[in-house]
Amino acid sequence: MHIVIRRATLEDAPAIYRVHLASIQTAASHYSPPQLAAWSGSCDPSSYAGPIEHKVVFVAEQSSVIQGFGQLDPQARVVDAVYVAPDIMRKGIGSSLLSALEAHAKSLGIEQLTLDASLSAMAFFIRAGYTLVAAANHDLGNGVSIPCIAMRKALSLR
Questions:
Q1: Are the beta carbons of 98 and 108 closer than 8 angstroms?
Q2: What is the C-alpha separation between 50 and 142, in angstroms, rounded?
Q3: Burial letters for 17-36: b for 16+ Cβ neighbours within 10 Å, e otherwise?
Q4: Whether 60 contacts 93, CB under 8 Å
Q5: Phi (first) and psi of residue 62, to 5 degrees
Q6: Tens of pLDDT along 119-141?
Q7: What is the pTM of this model?
Q8: Alpha-carbon gap, residue 59 to 149, rounded angstroms
Q9: Rounded to an integer, what distance in angstroms lies between the CA atom of residue 49 and that of residue 124?
Q10: Which of 54, 72, 73, 144 is the 20 to 30 Å CA partner of 8?
Q11: Which residues contact 17 (CB under 8 A, 6 or more apart)?
């Protein structure tokens, strides 16, 4: 399986949206149907234009098909997202995306990243070296929040 990690373009927004929606549904064991609906409803294809233009968004592409994406807010020093298509999860794509985001952050001199991990993604981020800070709630921007875990990781700038 050959995966290419690259910067997202505006043309990638519909594919990012599809991956995002499908990936959210894999959290059904941790969140209620109303929470999943609110989480899914917090995005649409046009909602990715701002991050693509003003933040750092990488996509994982296999045979010209986007299989995942990751998003970094360098100003806030926050990993906003790492999502992978459900049928290709646990194949190293999420780790590759997260590594690309971390490498970009290091290139900017960022020494620490934080994130709000969904309950379903917490183990993934622990394996990637993130440590738990506190239980939190992540605001979905539509009046609904979901429980999550605030995490952080120190980046070695060497």
A1: no
A2: 17
A3: bebbeebbebbeebbeeebb
A4: yes
A5: -130, 120
A6: 999 999 999 999 999 999 888 76
A7: 0.91
A8: 24
A9: 27
A10: 144
A11: 43, 44, 45, 47, 48
Amino acid identity, residue 20?
H
Distance from the first to the final alpha carbon of the chain: 30
Per-position DSSP letters for 64-118, written without gaps between them: TEEEEEEEEETTTTEEEEEEE-GGGTTSSHHHHHHHHHHHHHHHTT--EEEEEEE
Q: What is the pLDDT of residues 72-107, one digit of tens each?
A: 999 999 999 999 999 887 888 999 999 999 999 999
E strand or H helix that includes residue 148: strand 145-154
CA dihedral 75, 10, 15, 80 (to 10 degrees): 10
